[in-house]
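Backbone shape codes
____________________
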Amino acid sequence: MTGNDATAKDATRNDDKARFASVVMPHLADAYALARWITGNRTDAEDVVQDACLRAFRAIAGFAGGSTRAWTLTIVRNTAYTWMSKNLSMPLVAIDDLEALDDAQGLQSASQTMGRDQASTPETDLIAKADAEQLRAAIAALPVSFRETLVLRDVQGLDYREIAEVTAVPIGTVMSRLARARRRLIKTIGADR
């Protein structure tokens, strides 16, 4: 290898590092949150994010622009499913969307406004914590395709187009899965009260 080849290779490596830092690194918290929801635990999520970062770094030269968050979360999602298929014995079952889209948009706004009008006391804090744990458990109990769509929309804040890109399904399927996930959550939480 000549001196010019080595210099060019170092420059490319430095460009890839800078691009990785600007494209992937800002979304590591979101990547971890998604991996944790998919895998169900912290340790597996950390492994998935580490593998996803390696994949993203190797593919960074091919990033063609667009939503850096959606690109990063797509890699995390795909890595999570690959990792789970290799490391976990439980099968992943996809649920086909058979129902029509329902209007269940009120869950997010209701959860955002819940408790704003009340003064915080130890009792209200305890109730809110119990409610948050109940909600987390209800989300974790959803089928994987519903859970990931709900988490990408209501936790990560992605729009329908970005979710469709991350999950590789049509926007109509995203909307249907989201509505069904929200409906199941409302039913589960309502049954527990």
Notes: DSSP finds nine helices and no strands in the chain. Residues 91-118 have pLDDT under 50 and may be disordered. The CA atoms of residues 22 and 130 lie 38 Å apart. The longest helix spans residues 3-23.
